Amino acid sequence: MVIFLTGGTGFIGKRFIKLALQNGHFIFAVSRKKKNNKKKLKWLRGEINDDWSKFLRQSNIIVHLAAKGVRELKSENSYEVINFNVRKSFDLISLAIKNNCKKFIIASTSSEYANNGISKNKLSKKSKRSFSSIYSLSKIVFTDIIEHISKKTNSKFRIMRIFPTFGIGENKKRLFPTIRRLAKSGKNMNIKNPNEVRDFTDVNYVAKVLLDSCNFNTKKKFEIFHVSSNNTMSVLEFSKKIWKKYQAKGQLKYSKKIKRVERHISHAKSNWKLKYEK
User: Fold this and answer.
1) How many helices and strands, by DSSP H and E, does the chain display?
2) CB 3.0–4.6 Å: which of 3, 11, 56, 113 could bond 99 by disulfide?
3) Residue 277 pLDDT more than 80?
4) In whole angstroms, what separates CA 189 from the centre of its chain?
5) What is the rounded distance in angstroms from the CA atom of residue 128 to the CA atom of residue 37?
6) Which domain holds residue 182?
7) Which residues, including other chains, have CB under 8 Å from residue 78's CB and lie 6 or more apart?
8) Burial environment of residue 32 by CB neighbours within 10 A (0 to 12, 13 to 18, 19 or more)
């Protein structure tokens, strides 16, 4: 399989490339910076909406992981988020369709759901959506655009809503890298939201799901799936697990008065199931 990939330099994208190459696939990967090619991996330097017609015509599937706004951005950067996640992404999809591309995997997020994923019930594909940030708004808008495009073309699209993901290489300001760093340094850690319950999904599992979803064996033109291992636990439970793994000597400090909140918990029926999963 020849894969045209965006977001290959990102946290999830790096794992996806490694796994895809291990499985014998060829990848064209877009990057703003110059990168060294490898066997079966050709880096294309430029923007995602440059004219990649030559390479799109050779590709069997488009895997669009690139996005702006996952990290906190200042309000003046709002235009950049919308411009990249909607306009430039639309340009890429339109160009791919013109070059006879028929299959698309498009990464989205559980942040599409109302209250940024906070819900008393597990989230299903039909749960109410509502934006809580410019980033989540951009992903909602683009999902709706893709659904509209699917009705007008012969191409097939899968929106993969990725739930909270952790692992080595994650942004250092996020939860897992913070726990890991403080655990290894012997320092204490203050947990601000100990009773927030989430689905914690390892980045390697996410990469497996995304690659597995590239195998289209359906006649459906538009589908939505959750990407979650349903490894549900509180932030405190997750922190203790990582704390123990690295044999931390410091202390985990937190308030016992903070109420329980369920956030970004997927309903199992909405998840993409790997072939070996029951």
Assistant:
1) 8, 14
2) 56
3) no
4) 27
5) 43
6) 175-196+232-262
7) 134
8) exposed
Question: Do 78 and 125 have their domain in common?
Answer: yes
The pLDDT of residue 71 is 54
How far is Cα 156 from Cα 105, in angstroms, rounded to an integer?
Answer: 9
Q: What is the DSSP letter of 129?
A: B
Contact present, 231 and 193 (Cβ < 8 Å): no
**89 is written with which tokens?**
């992404």
Q: 181: domain CATH number?
A: 3.90.25.10
Cα angle 243-246-249, degrees, rounded to a multiple of 5: 65
Other Cβ atoms closer than 10 A to 33:
7
Q: How far is CA 97 from CA 57, 119, 142, 153, 177, in A?
A: 10, 37, 16, 8, 39
Angle between helix axes 203-212 and 11-22 (nearest 10 degrees) is 60
Token pair belonging to 115: 């209250």
CA distance 25 to 5: 12
Q: What is the pLDDT of residues 234-249, one digit of tens each?
A: 999 999 999 999 999 9
Q: What is the pTM of this model?
A: 0.94
